[in-house]
Amino acid sequence: MKFSSIYKIPLLLFFFITLAVSGQIKNPVKFKFTVNELGNNEYEAVLNATLESGWHIYSRDIPEDTGIPTEYKVSGKNIELIGKFQEVGKKHEEFSEAFNGKIIYYSNSAAFKQKFKLKDVSKPGNVVAEITYQTCDDRVCLAPNTLEFNQKIISKETKEDAALPNEEAKDSVTTTETVAENPSKGEITVTETSKLDPKQLKIASIDIAKPLTDCGTGSSKITENYWTYLLLGFVGGLIALLTPCVFPMIPLTVSFFTKGNKNPAKGKRDALIYGFFILLIFVLLSLPFHLIDGIAGNVFNEISTNVWLNIAFFIIFIFFAGSFFGYYDITLPSSIANKSSKAEEAGGMIGIFFMALTLVIVSFSCTGPILGSLLGSAITGSANVPMLLTFALAGFGLAWAIVFGLLALFPQALQSLPKSGGWMNTVKVVLGFVELALALKFLSKADLVSKTFLIKRELFIAIWIIVAIGLVVYLFGLIRFPHDDKKPKISVTRKIIGVLGLGFVVYLVQGLIPSERPKLQLLSGILPPINVSYFYDEKDGILGMKPEHDFFNAIELAKKENKPILIDFTGYGCENCRKMEEFVWSEPDILPILQNDVVLASLYVDDKEELPEDQKTKIDLGDGQVKKVKTIGDRWSLFQTANFNNNSQPHYVLITPDGKVINDPVSGYMEKEKFKKFLECGVNYFKKNK
């Protein structure tokens, strides 16, 4: 059974992730808001939309149960609307097979107009325009978006007295404290203010450039371990070489270069070039992530903690597992492979390139799930996703390039390669069990971010135990999958891996036993937090502590108890945060400091819960566009960036009750001694100077 059309679901994970990223950070429509004076106390609020080529925006008159209609609303103080808003532009109407009905949309440009008048011409008005819309092209629709624009209106009678009264200014976005975010640079500039207010994202007293003391704990920036991802990619590439889609092609391809050419030296040279092109093609797969414009500082964190995206990853990984088990094949359209194969006839360097491309395409059935797992782990595990993906894919391609290159140089080594056979299907099935286990990780993250807490730590471990037992049973030949031999030979290697699987089951069972100290350190960050458990209540805090989850409440508590505040920028989907909590915080010489000497403020940057209405605020994006900060995670993420010029988690900052930074912040997972030095230096300084 082949699902050759499955590529439409999103060429599996590569294009799925790319579309998810672009939907978050690239906006193909630009708006310009103006207010035109028509005379006789009549005005017109005009919002002009300019769309990139190939994209369209739906009309408000689109039929029900099709696309999302564009809604344009105008309101404000001292404003009275005249009629309904009007759409201006060239409408396009066509039948949509997807919706099974007619759709109406605008491409290239459109305008939305609303007439209004001032209720009292002697007073100024404040016009607020809000548009809700969705943009689509022929391949994808981006998530619906809502933008707000505002502008002051002063009639001719009052232009001499243009300044707004104080009470009016308090409600105007242009005169309150705002944060300007530059999406293309990821920078935030802030208008400082001295009064603490939950709506404020910048605290005037906080200055990370001038800590009160120097503890020598180093920079607050994280250095990504790119070489780790290069190694992971390399290992993934070696594993992919053992699959039945790739392994049989090794001797055929190498023999072509070494025997099919009358000049042996030229054949070896061409084989090395072939290996280089394989490496190049895999590296190019990461190129879209570097080219996407407008990457905000916290956008990849928003993507990795998106509930629906993690559920989608879960479904895709289950789908990968079914492919590895042999119930169906995941292949790219045959037309793509045919075109690439035909291009090989060009000869020379171009022909060699298309030979490499053909290899990558036809092996997609086996390499797609492996690469998808690697990419999924990278995009949900770091802020600097593009470079991590580049290194991971480079490692994957490097493994293939080395194997093909070395075998071309030393073709006699082909004789020592094992023959193709049932063992390759065993490799695929084992990978299927690995995909099942990894799928649960994404479902668990969605559960944590949505705060449903249905997948407790013990349930997660129990499911992994079942998966591991299934793998062991398969390796010992007690169950078979579609492509296994009827009477499979249980090799020594299978038996050894089966025994290791039993050892892993024994290791997992430890996690089902209640304990005061965390267990399963190797799986820290993958498992749900220790307080998401049948034996504990997540509301009871962690490690005997009940952190504050609101910075402003922590400030008040710190003043009352005369203690410094440890700000812990964390996230429900942050793996390194869990590792710090379980295996650094819990140490006997660290935990008492956290329990007794500081006020702990754990601020979750991925909390999707909406803020109370009186705490919601707005961010000026420039050009009159205003972004609403609606969720708790929005607030703490921007709060971190505005005050500490950092958007990574975990990130730890010690400050005094009056908001002064005590010592240099630290970031990321670190050894106990470094974290202890950071804590003791800051706490001791505070005790001596309070």
Question: What is the strand and helix layout of this fold?
Answer:
Blueprint: E1 2-3, H1 12-25, E2 29-39, E3 42-51, E4 56-58, E5 71-77, E6 79-88, E7 91-96, E8 101-107, E9 109-118, E10 125-133, E11 135-136, E12 145-153, H2 166-169, E13 179-182, E14 187-190, H3 226-241, H4 249-259, H5 264-284, H6 287-291, H7 299-304, H8 307-325, E15 329-330, H9 334-343, H10 348-362, H11 364-379, H12 385-409, H13 422-449, H14 457-475, H15 492-509, H16 551-561, E16 565-570, H17 575-585, H18 591-596, E17 599-604, E18 617-622, E19 625-629, H19 632-644, E20 651-655, E21 666-667, H20 672-689
Parallel strand pairs: 1-15, 16-17
Antiparallel strand pairs: 2-3, 3-9, 4-8, 4-11, 5-10, 6-9, 7-8, 10-12, 12-19, 13-14, 16-20, 18-19, 20-21
Helix pairs in contact: 1-11, 3-11, 3-12, 4-5, 4-12, 5-10, 5-12, 8-11, 8-13, 9-10, 11-12, 11-13, 13-14, 14-15
Question: Could you walk me through the main structural features you see in this protein, from its secondary elements to its overall organization?
Answer:
- With 690 residues, this protein is an alpha+beta fold.
- Helices cover 41% and strands 18% of the residues.
- It contains 20 helices and 21 strands.
- It has a five-stranded antiparallel beta sheet with strand order 5-10-12-19-18. The chain has a four-stranded antiparallel beta sheet with strand order 2-3-9-6, with no helix packed on it.
- Strand 13 and strand 14 (187-190) form a beta hairpin.
- Helix 4 (249-259) crosses helix 12 (385-409).
- The longest helix has 28 residues, at 422-449.
- The N and C termini lie far apart (73 Å).
- Residues 1-25, 160-195, 219-223 and 293-298 have low confidence and may be disordered.
